[in-house]
Amino acid sequence: MHRSLAVVALAATVACPACTDDQAKPAASAAPSVAPAADYSAWRAGRSTPVADTLYPEHGNSRIDILAYALKLDWRPAEKLLTGTATIRLRPVAAATEISLDFAHLTVDKATVDGAPATFAVAGQKLTVPATLVADRPVTLVVDYHGTPEQVSYPSHRDDAKEGVGLRPATTGGAWTMQEPWGAMTWYPANELVSDKALYDIAVTVPAGWAAAASGTPGPVEGNTYHYTSTVPVAAYLTTLAVDRYRKVTQTGPHGLPLTYWVLPKTDDKLLPSLKKSPEILTWLEHKLGRYPFETAGVLMNGSASAMETQQMLSMGRSLKWEPPFFEETLVHEYAHQWFGDAVTPSTWTDLWLNEGFAQYIEFRWEQELRKFSDADLERFLRRRDAELREKVGPPGKPKAANFAESNVYVCGAAMLKELNDALGDARFFALMRAWVAEHRGTSQDRAAFVAFVGTNTGKDFSKLIDAWLDSPKTPE
Fold first, then answer.
1. pTM, 2 dp
2. Which pLDDT score is estimated for 33?
């Protein structure tokens, strides 16, 4: 995820690491009835098991499962105006009388449910559309909207929390987004549950001379419209969008993997040599973790003071004023997330360590090999930082809602994995990591699933080790 918080490197400590106005249209009639069931088999791969998030219950709706989003977007730089049509295929998990989605700071112009006009209301970062929903009988919601996006807040003491999350117009006329644990709602109606993964089809129209970059597999550019598709499921927070006067750079990664970088001429030129180390980084990661889990990879540069593992297209903020070595280490971290966090996603934010602990440990192993740190050096470093962070923020398995994604879930989670690695040895440990992704790809998982998986695949009960490192207020002996 984005890393301007204090996630320290081994060589030295490095600091890197609202509501909408109420709007409604009065109901002209009762909630529209659902039309005869259509064929939703094309979006079957987007089926999820939504889990209500206990850490942030105000976000997301566990009563619906989004199968697919089709987003038609238009960005006008001079006006900083976003116009969009979101076609949302959703499966009701339970019977309900309304569709409720996260949506902030934009104006809804029209809504339909299965083609029939529907009333709607937007208030308190929620879009509500009356509809008669039957469990497991999918419907299609279409929402037309427009406005100037605004970022929303999230609860953390990280440095990058000050800039908020979500789509943000740039002073130059472009736009970019960073959005964890939420923020997709600032540019389309979204179910902001980490457990609700869906398919995406994104089309973005921009003026001549501008380009749009988004998460997913790059498709054709038709006139000034850029297309991106995700045929494997994506959590809403892992989507991204950026519009700027980009230059497109392409490269080929391991086994012919297409790579795309979106950079600003002159502004980002000094980072191009580091970006072009992506094939080397991905080859190293594949040796450890198995084949890269998606059909394309890439990086977009934006104006953030952060970085994030947005699916198939990393988001790297140039405001961090990177030096190449740290930029490359962060690329390792964010690319590692494509396995841990993107291919396999936590069921709730309580288990964010399943993302960050894994990516951080892989980054530390890269740095260890690069800088020739010994295993004892890594052990001492992790235990020292682990003790500091447990005292300051608490254990990684019991995060506090006010401390989203602070350093404990990174470093303390990595320390647990180091102990597991030591117990198993490299060959068995990385075989375990490869199997975890291969068996759970495209799903959301939790601690209980990981503990059970480790026990089944090693023939030994590691639950005491894992639980101690996730829950103890002090560093385990």
1. 0.93
2. 44
Angstrom distance (rounded) from CA 243 to CA 212? 4
d(CA 89, CA 70): 9
3-state secondary structure of 166: strand
Place of tokens 């308190």: 124
What's the CA gap between 393 and 404, in Å, rounded?
A: 10
Q: Which helix (H) or strand (E) holds 83?
A: strand 81-92
Which residues neighbour 430 within 8 Å (Cβ) at sequence distance 6 or greater?
A: 288, 289
The H or E element containing residue 128 is strand 126-133
Residue-range domains of the chain with CATH: 18-238 (2.60.40.1730), 344-471 (1.10.390.10)
Q: What is the CA radius of gyration of the chain?
A: 22
Q: By the 8 A CB rule, do 293 and 338 touch?
A: yes
How would residue 27 be classed by pLDDT, with cut points 50, 70 and 90? very low
Residue 265 is encoded by which pair of tokens? 């001429």
Cis, peptide link before residue 36, omega less than 30° from 0: no
Going by the DSSP 8-state scheme, the letter that residue 165 receives in this structure is: B
Bridge partners, 251 (sequence order): 259
The Cα 36–Cα 474 span in angstroms is 58
Q: What is the C-alpha separation between 459 and 239, in angstroms, rounded?
A: 38
Could you give phi then psi for residue 338, rounded to 5 degrees? -60, -30
Structure tokens at 331: 């690329």
Give the separation between CA 315 and CA 174, rounded to whole angstroms: 15
| CA–CA distance, 385 with 407 (Å, rounded to integer) | 9
Q: What's the pLDDT tens digit per position in 97-109?
A: 999 999 999 999 9
CB atoms inside a 10 Å sphere around CB 149: 23
Per-position DSSP letters for 196-231, written without gaps between them: -EEEEEEEEE--TT-EEEESSEEEEEETTEEEEEEE
Average pLDDT over residues 53-70: 98
